[in-house]
Amino acid sequence: MSVPLLDWAGYTRAPDEFASVLGQTCRETGFFLLQNHGISERRIADVFSQSARFFAQGDNEKRPLSISSNPHNRGWAYLGSESLDETSGQIDRKEAFNIGLDLAPDDPRVLRTEPFRGVNLWPELPGFRETMLAYYNDVWRLGVALLRPIARDLSLPDDHFAPCFDAPMATLRLLHYPPANGARGEIGAGAHTDYGALTLLLTDGAPGLQVRPRGGDWQDVPHVPGAFIVNIGDCLMRWTNDQYVSTPHRVLPPPRKRQSVAFFLDPNPDAVIAALPGTGAARYPTVTGAEYLQSRLSATYST
Q: Has domain 5-300 been given CATH number 3.40.50.620?
């Protein structure tokens, strides 16, 4: 398996051709690189800089923002708090910080305690909130735009998915992996598939990310400066009735400190996840976006 490099500018020039190539990629590898995506280098550099500032703080500064005390998947996940490999139970050696759709405390959805409708937790770092929300909005727009050629490939109207992502459970996740310490069985992030529709990932270039095609061996994902690593998540695989593939991946312990910034594009909480028209007899029961995400998060934090 190779990880194809797609040019987002090609969608404007030849939308049918781009949708065809994208669709083939989603069916065969579930992973691709995306260049010329329109998000500025300055914006990306600011996000990595602010992320590094956050993780450079001591645990005492980060602990009040703990995700363990937040029911809406927001806040800081401490080193060793997650286990993505549900089979082995291997503990991940990473820490993370989650940011969701930014809602005010008096938003009716927050007051009704709807699932995944809480307020974000923010560190007291100048510029952090503004930088992260600007980037969140940029990648949210890009992710929803990518769903247009996906819909076209599936013989649906280009805007088919748009109503399901106008107030998504999307999560911006900042990640920090300390250097490998050589411990037996050490892993940065255990083997897993992502939960949502699409994941858009940027890394600092440190090695570690690997994918495993079905029936194949683990392979390194190449780093192309400025390009997003995009992959299909389990929710979209389920939605397409397994026409698209969600490929297992992991992060090996890096030789040096590793930073990455992931954007998990999950649908609206009330989005109905059922086999799309033209994909055959449904292989899965119908669920809402919130029900599906909660089931996956519960497994991750059960250790």
A: no
